[in-house]
């Protein structure tokens, strides 16, 4: 299947519309809460074409006409059970977080489904991307957001939303589509959607997704990642001609996709850059964004928003004629001398495959009446159930090997399992660099006619490489001219490349979330993928415990061991390669 991201022009700096030990294996108190919450909050499936919910026990449901699974009706709000609420509160877990609305990962919906109420524009962009049905997370989130905005034009009552769904399940479009739908009929350019991601690469990727779906509208999408000098970025984001500070700002973009550090830079140093018109604040890879300080970005953004909300403004924006269904500025025309309405409530949208359950981190967000939608995947039935979910199309393996033979076992995997189109994760940049040297030298030792299949080409991909070289390596990988990338955790999150057939954890991940994101680079969007973890013997206990605590061990991973003959055959060339590397680098 072709990725919708394929075929879209790389957008450059600015793109426009057109253009988580130690817990016992038995069920913990929290597991009980989560199990109960799942029983309570699994939503009944509505009958096709009906506003009425169907009976909760299916088997009586008629088959959908389009052959796709129906998605749940989120229009009803469920009251948490009192006992569960008390128990969760005792543990410091907010009630809404303990009681998510769970969605089956197979629940898809046709793009034409009336409940999604997608515009012809968005449907045509979906068609252009080869999307005929929307994935579970999209089918669940889009109607919720659309309904919230339809019901509250002034947005004072919109609820914040947290979403967790497995890696590669399509979370990006779950916020891109409703934002484009909501803003596409706007009359005046104002910064109305802020999308924050932890890395430049991810911001670029999401920026391209927005640009693709905004194509054919007047909406303008901006990117702020620090890839270009600040002055140039400022020019792209605000109108330079507006020399004097304007009460309403002078945004050139409707949607800004950015990294937290660069956002802080603009808040501090860009005249006329304002968040006062924001309607959406998306935090993708939210657990990571909340887990790191990034120049204290979160309190700074909160302070900026609260500052503008607290000050009544005189009408400083151009007049707008309200249009049914249009997203308009709610300010009065200039010169009327009438105080403008208070700033609209900003809806916060959090997305992650491993959404944090840490009450303290969540509390920092000051969420308003939050809703939590959790798309189920494979695994995640244990200690941190709901936190870690895996694509059902992912096959997972592990091999326990001697510490000093890990490179040889990696070579064995490449040879025997014919891994082509893979990513190999190490614990550090140095480890990636050294491993790449060993494997590359080994490849040179293997006679051209001895390869069982296509010869493998390995490249190092690290933040140590100049940006241009990194881009070149990635390009070659996407063109399948490089068959294996060896890297640190630089690309462990969010990176969406459709041809990644396998992930190798050369170094064992230290946290369950790290494992989840790394292996999530494969088996995306319903495709099959394999994940291999090389476990050095002394780490075997820790690895197994981590996986068990994460509810992802029994029946999830299969042990593999190499064929002795093949290993012995490969050992010869491997040792020759090791000697060469030692001679060159003195290691
Ligand atoms: N409805 C759909 N039909 C087909 N492909 C889709 C659909 N929605 C998304 N995709 C594709 O699925 C892939 C994964 O999507 P996306 O990157 O949004 O996943 P994700 O849930 O954000 O993953 P991660 O947690 O790893 O960041 C992308 O290539 C995207 O284009």
Automatic annotation (TrEMBL):
Residue intervals of the Helicase C-terminal domain: 393-582
Renumbered residue ranges of the record's region Disordered: 1-68
PANTHER family listed in its UniProt record: RNA HELICASE (PTHR24031)
EC number in record: 3.6.4.13
Catalytic activity: ATP + H2O = ADP + phosphate + H(+)
Function: RNA helicase.
Domains: entry comment: The Q motif is unique to and characteristic of the DEAD box family of RNA helicases and controls ATP binding and hydrolysis.
Enzyme type, top EC level: hydrolase
Descriptive protein name: ATP-dependent RNA helicase
Residue intervals of the Helicase ATP-binding domain: 152-373
One MF term in the entry's GO annotations: RNA binding
Domain of life: Eukaryota
Pfam families for the chain: DEAD (PF00270), Helicase_C (PF00271)
Assigned protein family: Belongs to the DEAD box helicase family.
Keyword annotations from UniProtKB, A to Z: ATP-binding, Helicase, Hydrolase, Nucleotide-binding, RNA-binding
